[in-house]
């Protein structure tokens, strides 16, 4: 009988962040009655199975109106299809309506969730062992995980409490160059980052674009939470401010529609020139990578998303008003509960202006052992911030999520957390 | 404006096989009236958009009968889900019914098509630069493409006209070891391989399992065409003959259901032991890799496939009788047409016992330039066999496909090919 040694498998199988995430899921599984301030998934009750057929039908109607025959529509939904997908034009239209981003449909690649978009962008840009990616730190584990699969080094750019600072990006890029490596791109979440909750002021966004230009970096902008601000302040994406194609925009429908569709996208309108001077768009060049990962994105899932975009008048913002109100109320509830229980104590928390996450500094080691005690004895789950640091850090901080449960449970959960930390 | 140099992108973007495949697609696009003996996709008219909702409903009924609440079913179809998927149990049941493969559901990982299954298996098994994969050559381009994304070296094991020989596997493995590398796995398609069409006799399958055991190789068995034999001979998969978990089985629903669902799977029931002696299944360990590529497989697509499996009584063989008859007639038509036009000439072709492909040796250089002439002047497309060799070869051979068109077009296409080659 074949017995494989776990240690002989690739490092991405056995990496510590995955082990941590598995531990978190495993604890959640063992204490199903615990209130989860750890889960960052969207709230279940916004999703509807009936939407699936409704939106497929809306997409089929749209195809018919565009003059496609029944056979051609069938082929689009059931055959192997164009590597970069069949709803890129609808996504480009939504980006224009909602985000003031104007790109040709050919610059949009539809991906199997945003996770695949990260893998594809990193793979295309990082050609050799000397090519590294910079990432705002604390960093979303999906980005570090994607890099680990590919053997791409991630170098953290420490966030200040107000978010990423352009001068820190410059300093880290210079330090990377000084050790003979090439920083190719900078990954960031401009709005209500996961995990830090922090958003970047507009002048900082512009300054980051300038720093990226000076340092010859592309920016990988990931914006899954941008709709969910506490107010209606405009928060322009870096891509909408990007006048020289410096930004690759990574998109997700997981929070604005539903995660089970597994549809995301990347926008790469950069020009690529070969030695003969032939010019293409980066999204077109990256289709080779996409084809070798998943051939193309589920045609069904694309049709469902396409139908939703058509039904919404190409505005996720318009169609998500109820979700926006719900997540606002939840975040306000979380912040009010933290104030109620922790004002005047040694616990400190930040004050995100939107999104799903708040970070608390706690006066104890926020370890896996403490999480186990928290789940078992106090019935509340949270995420140790140490999971989000590439090279160590976050030992005395936790991430609290408020997206997956209702306000009364958030209040109760923070009360339980207070009981734990009083101990 | 950012202008990227194509040569600075990763080699998987610019690799020659992809360029060749793009060339093929591009020629097909320029000559839409040409008869394609190049396209290996399944025949369109077996697919039905109405099946999508029908099979989702069948899956929902199944979940209800298993006692799941409406909310739990909604969650399964719309939320982030289990990394390894929610229809593994149904796939395990089908493998038992159709293939005499008995594995626990936990050994099945549902993937975004078989392509992702290849990426995940290669990534998990090949941990360092010295770990290489052996592959029957000529080789399916999806395997070499997946390896290129990951920087894994592929070493070809030349097929004889009767298919892979165990002694060649042993010799290639020894040669790889002699240059200080470690062969970790052997990729093969036992039934009607793409591109060669060749199938392995049962004694050879057993001998390959023995050779793999001796050489400490896992076998990556890819079987997308196994249903489509010209006769009802049983052709046991290597996995069904595998008594010591030597085989990782890579599955596809692209030909047995429809490609647009993008659902495949891998079966990895190998035991993994860590330093502490804790034992898990390889499929469970590989879930880390899956989560970093695509999080999980489209829950919608899984539901559609799940409903189809339930509706079919868990037998792809039973539900595919019409397709089996169609592809038999097509392959017989292709072989008869070759006989009619080329018997007694310098053109030689092999005699597959099923599947979608026949290989012809031709007395000319089967180059891209000849393909262009063939498309433009003779209205027929085919695939140069040189696309399928890692290290050169196949210059005077072409692959003919017979899956995507009807018999009269196949006859006409071979006639046009004869006109080209008479020139």
Structure description:
- The structure is a homodimer of 423-residue chains.
- The first copy, chain A, has 2 domains: 143 residues, Alpha-Beta Complex (Aspartate Aminotransferase, domain 1), CATH 3.90.1150; 263 residues, Type I PLP-dependent aspartate aminotransferase-like (Major domain) (Aspartate Aminotransferase, domain 2).
- In chain A, 43% of the residues lie in helices and 15% in strands.
- The mean pLDDT of chain A is 96.
- Chain A is an alpha/beta fold and 423 residues long.
- Chain A is built from 16 helices and 16 strands.
- The radius of gyration of chain A is 22 Å and the shape is globular.
- In chain A, strand 12 and strand 13 form a beta hairpin.
- Strand 1 of chain A pairs parallel with strand 10 of chain B, so a sheet runs across the interface.
- Chains A, B: Its cofactor is pyridoxal 5'-phosphate.
- Chains A, B: This is PLP-dependent aminotransferase family protein.
């Amino acid at each position: 009988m074949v017995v494989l040694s776990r240690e002989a498998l690739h490092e991405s199988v056995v990496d510590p962040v995955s082990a941590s995430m598995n531990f978190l899921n495993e604890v959640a599984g063992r204490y199903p009655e615990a209130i989860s301030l750890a889960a960052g998934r969207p709230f279940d009750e916004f999703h509807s199975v009936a939407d699936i057929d409704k939106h497929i039908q809306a997409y089929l109607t749209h195809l018919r109106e565009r003059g496609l025959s029944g056979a051609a529509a069938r082929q689009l939904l059931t055959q192997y299809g164009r590597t970069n997908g069949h709803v890129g034009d609808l996504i480009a239209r939504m980006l224009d309506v909602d985000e003031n981003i104007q790109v040709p449909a050919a610059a949009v690649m539809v991906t199997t969730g945003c996770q695949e978009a990260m893998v594809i962008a990193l793979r295309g840009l990082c050609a050799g062992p000397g090519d590294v990616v910079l990432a705002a730190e604390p960093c979303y584990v999906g980005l570090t995980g994607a890099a680990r699969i590919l053997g791409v080094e991630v170098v953290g750019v420490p966030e200040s409490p107000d978010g990423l600072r352009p001068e820190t990006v410059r300093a880290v890029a210079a330090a990377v160059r000084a050790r003979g490596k090439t920083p190719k791109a900078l990954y960031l979440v401009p709005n209500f980052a996961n995990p830090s909750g922090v958003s970047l002021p507009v002048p900082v966004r512009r300054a980051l674009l300038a720093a990226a230009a000076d340092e010859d970096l592309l920016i990988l902008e990931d914006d899954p939470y941008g709709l969910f601000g506490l107010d209606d302040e405009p928060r322009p994406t870096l891509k909408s401010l990007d006048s020289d194609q410096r930004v690759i925009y990574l998109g997700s429908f997981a929070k604005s529609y539903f995660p089970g569709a597994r549809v995301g996208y990347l926008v790469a309108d950069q020009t690529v020139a070969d030695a003969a001077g032939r010019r293409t768009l980066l999204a077109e060049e990256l289709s080779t990578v996409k084809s070798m990962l998943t051939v193309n994105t589920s045609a069904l899932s694309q049709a469902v998303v396409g139908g939703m975009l058509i039904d919404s008048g190409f505005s996720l913002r318009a169609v998500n008003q109820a979700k926006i109100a719900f997540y606002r109320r939840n975040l306000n509830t979380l912040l009010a509960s933290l104030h109620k229980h922790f004002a005047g104590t040694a616990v400190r928390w930040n004050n995100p202006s939107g999104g799903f996450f708040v970070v608390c500094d706690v006066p104890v080691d926020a370890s896996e052992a403490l999480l186990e005690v928290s789940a078992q004895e106090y019935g509340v789950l949270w995420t140790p911030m140490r999971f989000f640091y590439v090279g160590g850090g976050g030992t005395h901080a936790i991430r609290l999520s408020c997206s997956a449960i209702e306000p009364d449970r958030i209040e109760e959960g923070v009360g339980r957390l207070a009981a734990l930390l009083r101990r």
